[in-house]
């Protein structure tokens, strides 16, 4: 778990695709459809291998790989993906799962690095050394990586809104989120949302930062929610947000909300995973 309602303006352009079960119907020539196998029949399975790499281009350590495997198992458990097996050999992660779960398994391998960053005035890009990067950034869906480290300013895109941002250093990391849960908000008509609960330290920091931002003029009163280098929301803040909770809402399906909540609750993976091959 990570050692990590009033943010009503937050809206997430979900990057997790909505999924539905795919049922292939086969029929015999001139006959009725082939009957479904009994419920106790063996499930078809897939095996997918992923190559792990570090964001700093270094070689993943044995501890990196143990943490990655543990967090993937936690995500699979949270999502109810039964009979999912995660193993590690060197810098390769292998996941065996039911074929019916293969799409959700692929989605749960996202790094899920969560950051809260203040939005800066684009007019200050030059003094931040980011004038060229900001000017060249085109938010058309082709660029997703934040061009900075957590302790420095950077530029990033909100691809849903086709908007680019100059961002300050990370003010609140995902490690300050204690838990994340998916829920259906019928009262406010928000649909599926992800509710965040901060640690005591995170709650105090969130309140302090939002209080400071609320005194600024637009756009520097905005607080960007960044997941894996992409701005998914940048709500304006008008007062300190207390209570230790925040909400991410928007175009979520149930699967999308549950996938993100499971990933944020387990903690970001210390490595990036790229699929290298799948066996049916």
What would you say about this model in short?
The chain is built from 5 helices and 14 strands. The chain is of the alpha+beta class and 280 residues long. It has 2 domains: 45-110 and 272-279, Alpha-Beta Plaits, CATH 3.30.70; 114-254, Gyrase A, domain 2 (2-Layer Sandwich).
Order of helices and strands: EEHEEHEHEEEEEHEEEHE
Number of strands: 14
* CATH-derived architecture of the largest domain: 2-Layer Sandwich
**N/C terminus separation:** 32 Å
The number of distinct structural domains comes to 2
Q: Per the principal axes of the C-alpha atoms, what is the gross shape?
A: globular
SSE layout and pairings?
Blueprint: E1 11-12, E2 45-53, H1 62-78, E3 85-89, E4 92-98, H2 102-107, E5 114-120, H3 131-136, E6 154-158, E7 163-167, E8 172-173, E9 177-185, E10 191-198, H4 200-213, E11 223-227, E12 230-233, E13 245-250, H5 254-266, E14 272-279
Parallel strand pairs: 1-13
Antiparallel strand pairs: 2-4, 2-14, 3-4, 5-7, 5-8, 5-11, 6-7, 9-10, 10-13, 11-12
Helix pairs in contact: 1-5
